[in-house]
Amino acid sequence: MIPNHSFSSDEYPVNCQDRPDKPEEACGVFGIYAPGEDVTKLTYFGLYALQHRGQESAGIATFQGKEVNLYKGMGLVSHVFNESILSQMPGDMAVGHTRYSTTGSSKVVNAQPAVVETRLGKLALAHNGNLVNTTTLREELLKRDCNLLTTTDSEMIAFAIAEQVNEGQDWLEGAIRAFHQCQGAFSLVIGTPAGLMGARDPNGIRPLVIGILEGSPQRYVLASETCGLDIIGAEYLRDVEPGELVWITDDGLASFHWSKEPQRKLCIFEMIYFARPDSVVHDETLYSYRMRLGRQLAADSPIDADIVIGVPDSGIPAAIGFSQASGITYAEGLIKNRYVGRTFIQPTQAMRESGIKMKLNPLKDVLAGKRVIIIDDSIVRGTTSRKIVKALRDAGATEVHMRISSPPVTHPCFYGIDTDTQDQLIAATKSVEEIGQLIGVDTLAYLSIEGMLKSTGEDTNNFCSACFNGDYPIAIPETVKRSKLILEKAVPA
Ligand SMILES: O=P(O)(O)OC[C@H]1O[C@H](OP(=O)(O)OP(=O)(O)O)[C@H](O)[C@@H]1O
Ligand SMILES: NC(=O)CC[C@H](N)C(=O)O
Ligand code: SF4
Ligand SMILES: [Mg+2]
């Protein structure tokens, strides 16, 4: 048997300065309750489908009664696990995680699931999101002699639950009391010897879905996105609701609405970029939603040109929608090297300068002599766009018109997406015209907030869109704000 807390390496060889110039990912969480099935392998595949949500570390905890087998390491799911490791982790239930760190550095000790001992046995917790009250929560836990081992907000949630359980609460009441101490975004999958828990914060910022595996009795799966269900052949049942806790045991699935004031504030960035296009949200794939964004963009900001191209991968659905609505031919103008990892660091300055060629190579004979409309889902720092525009011109494009299928990103995220500080966001300090000049396009237009929200077909109040308008649905303490917002930084404390 492999020991608990087996680590494959000590530290991820990438520091914060080396992080890519783009919106980074949220984490992926997965859980399965399926006695008699190979839950370990199923979790591995679930995490494989959720790899895009976090590439820093991966981990799986399996439960066999009160015994917990934990294995986690730095890197991609396929690097961390192999057949031999998985075969040494039997269980009836499992919890898995792919991480992109937001609170607590990118070290193996901070990798998840976080496993904590209680009087009722161990719990294993996987968290997607970010708490905004970590300073006070940490102080409170330390005051009560909590033996925090890591610097993550996720471990604090695990300890807060353990504390309640050790004071006499059962798993459910202990978890609910702990959730009330947490402010911020949390979609959680928690394994315990008594059953599997799934929970979302009262605003439902990050997604979490429930699936069913065929067979009798019914077996349940929890995953950040439906693509995590599809890969193992599980059927989508429904979302875990904001402020809901689901409790999965031999008796089936029980639901508890633990928050008095739940509201729907799903992260709109999940819809436009983070989640996989084949994941289903509000009864349709995000591919369809993103195509609609492109159609809306064509209606709002038309321009005459010879071809429409998308920036692979995330800009493609909107480019197809733009082409359909405008009648301008869709073409592939950039080919992506699918083997370049998202966190790949180029070793020399020259390679970094031409970085875009590592990932995207222009098709000269498609582009030469053409007036090109290029569509992307977002501009964050603007570095990617500038390189792409230069590459298109070098390839012979006579005009380059950029259309973005979301509004300008003006504010950082505090809820589990590690966007830069506000001063790094190009649209926080520059007008659309200035951005157009900086990235070197003939024209630039963004989709409006109304266009982005209206295209969801849902009540437009049902989303967090704070990175586009600064309207944060969960209050952020002043000190936390000052760490990322330039406007607040300028105001004396
Ligand atoms: O900060 P910026 O330089 O403005 O970058 C923004 C770009 O980064 C992201 O794509 P990514 O490179 O992650 O690739 P993907 O679309 O394949 O996910 C995003 O979709 C934009 O295309
Ligand atoms: N991106 C996330 O969801 C991160 C989860 C958690 N805050 C961590 O840093 O581990
Ligand atoms: S601030 Fe932006 S990225 Fe963060 S949760 Fe809200 S919409 Fe999503
Ligand atoms: Mg992209």
UniProtKB/TrEMBL annotation:
It is an enzyme of class 2 (transferase). [4Fe-4S] cluster binds at residues 267, 413, 464, 467. The active site is at residue 27. CDD domains: GPATase_N, PRTases_typeI. It catalyses: 5-phospho-beta-D-ribosylamine + L-glutamate + diphosphate = 5-phospho-alpha-D-ribose 1-diphosphate + L-glutamine + H2O. Residues 27-251 form the Glutamine amidotransferase type-2 domain. Pfam families: GATase_6, Pribosyltran. PROSITE patterns: GATASE_TYPE_2 (PS51278). GO terms for biological process: 'de novo' IMP biosynthetic process; purine nucleobase biosynthetic process. Gene3D superfamilies: 3.40.50.2020, Glutamine Phosphoribosylpyrophosphate, subunit 1, domain 1 (3.60.20.10). Mg(2+) binds at residues 314, 376-377. Its EC number is 2.4.2.14. Pathway: Purine metabolism; IMP biosynthesis via de novo pathway; N(1)-(5-phospho-D-ribosyl)glycinamide from 5-phospho-alpha-D-ribose 1-diphosphate: step 1/2. Keywords: 4Fe-4S, Glutamine amidotransferase, Glycosyltransferase, Iron, Iron-sulfur, Magnesium, Metal-binding, Purine biosynthesis, Transferase. Its cofactor is [4Fe-4S] cluster; Mg(2+). One of its GO terms (molecular function) is 4 iron, 4 sulfur cluster binding. Binds 1 [4Fe-4S] cluster per subunit. InterPro entries: GATase_2_dom, Ntn_hydrolases_N, PRTase-like, PRTase_dom, PurF, PurF_N. In the C-terminal section; belongs to the purine/pyrimidine phosphoribosyltransferase family. HAMAP family: PurF (MF_01931). Catalyzes the formation of phosphoribosylamine from phosphoribosylpyrophosphate (PRPP) and glutamine. This is Amidophosphoribosyltransferase. It comes from Crinalium epipsammum PCC 9333. The lineage of its organism: Bacteria, Bacillati, Cyanobacteriota, Cyanophyceae, Gomontiellales.
